[in-house]
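Incident log, entry 3
Record: Thioesterase domain-containing protein (166 residues)
Problem: checksum mismatch between cached and fresh output.
Input:
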Amino acid sequence: MTERGRTMELIHKLQSFLNEASEEEAQILSNAVDSLQKKRETPYASYISSLMNMEYSLHKNETLSITIPITPFLHNTLGMVHGGLTATLMDTAMGALANITLADDEAAVTSEMKVNYTSPGVGKALRCDASIVHKGRRSIVTEARVYGDHEELIALSTGTFFVVKQ
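Fresh output:
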């Protein structure tokens, strides 16, 4: 199939979907398109970080925070943030923090991660705070905590990142 054919097929699928979409489904699709556009404009963002609308901030105490809005896109069947997406938030925060501590010719990749969930992810937003517990030449151990709207602990995690040469 040609590129034009794929484009026309996608347009047809979107039109068919939107003809029967609920307001919530239409909003999720609109947010997804906005996120994909944002990904184009932010070369270091991943698709998942764009789709989750991650906002990063690095603090003077060497903590990295990522905030995400809670939207229906993130919900599991019980109406709370899917645990796997909470884990993705923590892995992203810990990995980003590990990577910014490294030389330009090095990268950190997740080698182990443990997650404990303590409360349901509900409300308007989640904030993940990541910090480094130990930094060695070959591995970095990190910790992350996810908080809800009222500073309630949603989940906590430890992660080990293996340092590789690029």
